[in-house]
TrEMBL record:
Assembly and binders: Component of a cohesin-like complex composed of ScpA, ScpB and the Smc homodimer, in which ScpA and ScpB bind to the head domain of Smc. The presence of the three proteins is required for the association of the complex with DNA.
Subcellular location: Cytoplasm
Keywords of the record: Cell cycle, Cell division, Chromosome partition, Cytoplasm
Keyword Phosphoprotein: no
Function: Participates in chromosomal partition during cell division. May act via the formation of a condensin-like complex containing Smc and ScpB that pull DNA away from mid-cell into both cell halves.
Superkingdom field: Bacteria
Protein name as it appears in the record: Segregation and condensation protein A
Homology family: Belongs to the ScpA family.
TM ranges: none
Amino acid sequence: MNGYKVQLDVFEGPLDLLLHLIKELEIDIYDIPMKTLTRQYMEYIDEMKELEINVASEYLVMASELLKIKSHMLLPEPPHMEEEYEDPRESLMEQLIEYQNYKQYAEQLAELKKENEKIYIKAPHAFEEKADDDAPLEVSLADLMAAYQKVRARVSVDRPRNITITRESVSREFAESFLRQCFSGKKTLGLRDIFTFSESKPKVVAVFLTLLDLVKDNQLAIHPRGRDDFEIERLYD
């Protein structure tokens, strides 16, 4: 027996086992040496029996078929029947070729299935009917204005705003100097003459507080003038 080892579970039937033996023994499938193939096949069956492995009946049927073909080939051919001689291996050869083709197709389909499993296909789903583009647009002017207001509000919120707040510092010295300039060459001034109302708020506050301090220090005096104005009198020379 040659050194090959086979297991029953590997093969899907006796034809599969025969194809395996043909490849192992490098046998021409169109010219099968029945003696060699039958011997190898029977050794395999005997080995399975020695290992107490149940051999399916189809394997035993094939064994009897191989023995039958082998016995037919051992018989001498009648000389006058030579042209009508039918090779007893022909049926087996056709079965093996057909099985071999099916097996190749099965392997190709399995390979395609394996490749297709790597591809994800989006499941079909129902699409909503597309609206008629020619249908009149039912939008009122109020709707458009509301949408416009929303866009404006959104733009206003999204727009970055950089606000810089600076604090103006007005010193008492500046306020005193400012008042002296106002009274330059003048003895009295109206309160409205001192402020043009375009000054900054810190400047107005600082000048007014300084003016009150100077009144307190008797450098200036305040007299009513009209309903909403006062006269400021300079007391120093």
